[in-house]
Amino acid sequence: MNIAYILNTYPQPSHSFIRRELRALEAGGARIVRLAMRRSESELVDPADREEAALTEYVLDLGALGLLRETLTCALSAPHRFGRALRQAWQMGRISDPGILRHLVYLAEAAAVARRCASAGIDHMHAHFGTNATAVALLAHELGGPGYSFTIHGPEEFDAPRALSLGAKLDHAAFAVAVSQFGRSQLARWAAFETWPRLHVVHCTIEPAHFNDPPPLPDGPMRLVNIGRFVEQKGQMLLVEAMARLGDTQLDLHLTLVGDGEMRPALEAAIMRHDLGERITLTGWLDEAGVRRELASAHGLILPSFAEGLPMVVMEAMAMARPVIATYIAGIPELVRSQQTGWLVPAGDVDALAQAVADMTATPRDKLSEMGQAARQRVLARHDAGHEAAKLAEHFTRAIRAGSSFK
Description:
Helices cover 47% and strands 15% of the residues.
């Protein structure tokens, strides 16, 4: 199989799951061409991300004149197809937040993608996220490119399905993938009933070999770690509030926040306001090895998110045999089992979050170790990279055989 992966900004520190998927598909014999629209503006601290960047072709590197040339070539060589794609871009742009002009840019990007797919002998396109990358894949298909599919993660696609033309993207796709049953249910809301058999679940994955022989829970006072972008939906501000409410009852408790983002100044101000500087550490972004070191030194992961798909950090923590405190949202309850592999709490409830932390602290270490081992066995059974890539490859094969035409 010759597969083109259509991506927006790639690689990024939070998209290691895409890299794992690509590598697993390649290990299974697929040839992958990586077509991203733009380079990451963030510094790539992980060597594997830098390697991926070197393997990726960037559409916007063509520049404005290059994109115009690709667009005119498509328009002149197949005017009927181009007119149909132009109408589709106009319709999507008219109801979107970015607007029509942005979708005309997507059309130009799609022209470059379609021509690159033709020159590379691509059999099928696959996009990650139901946002602009999938819009480009749809338009490239309309311009004569191969059939396409896409993976949705949430929560962005769930927040604005109409503005993202999610229904149109599903109608034109050979198939669509969600990373959880919850995600599939959200796709079913926007897909015609007769297309439901084309909605599949393929989990994001971990590489079990990277989590062999996880270290035992550390001795000493309770240490919790949170990993993620510092943005509202991740809920880190609730962690600061929960730590403040625990107050003098948990003086030895320490929280490490791994990540960075637009909310960092607000988090730092809240930490200072509550006099928690000695009990909360901010590390900035870390590479995969650094994340594993933080998980190894912690007794558990805590994730107070308001909106998610199915977070990779939960899978990685469970693979490290660490119990998880998380909110009862989206696909998380499909993986985390309350009182078995961790604790689930209502999103936005600071008191419940603080109580879960107190419960974890009060749990005997041997019981926490048992919960961590149960978490490890569960995630290894459900999120193996090779197994999930094989499922996705089978969907690709069926789509290619069927001609990838499901309009």
